[in-house]
Amino acid sequence: MGKGKEITTSLKKLDLNSNFMACTPSKSSLFSPTLQSPGLLSCRRLLLGKSKPPSLVSLCLGVIGKNLQEIIAHLSDISIAFPPHIRMTIAAIARRRKMLCDEVIIPLADTSWEILDISGSEVTDSGLIEVAKTCKFLQAIDISRCNKITASSVSVLVEHCKSL
């Protein structure tokens, strides 16, 4: 019987409705021009339908982005299942996180890509040459601030990608 009383006491200490109450403004404050807290603004937008929850694709890309370091070794096996625009997004995430290198860009490269931004990355000549062989329809590529890319790989790029 003592255990049941302990559970009841523990449950009473929990404030299970704190988030709900914080997101439930009164009717008068719902249309008030002033806001009491920044958190209430996001709740108000949600209640009024001005904000949508993130899509499943966005959530999945967020998980991939957070765990990119761990999946780089398996990227060639994983990326086969992704459509080209998702591969491009993963490459952009890697570039922004300063993780874009040959190991990442080569398995992600897709034949349908027409633009590519690898600026400021660690992609080397061999990586750029492999991308050039795969992405023959590239029309624009940003290789600025890529210190490991030389003129020889750029000439191979121009040779393979006639639309540049």
UniProtKB/TrEMBL annotation:
Q: Which InterPro entries match?
A: Leu-rich_rpt, LRR_dom_sf
Q: Name one Pfam family in it.
A: LRR_6
| Record protein name field | RNI-like superfamily protein
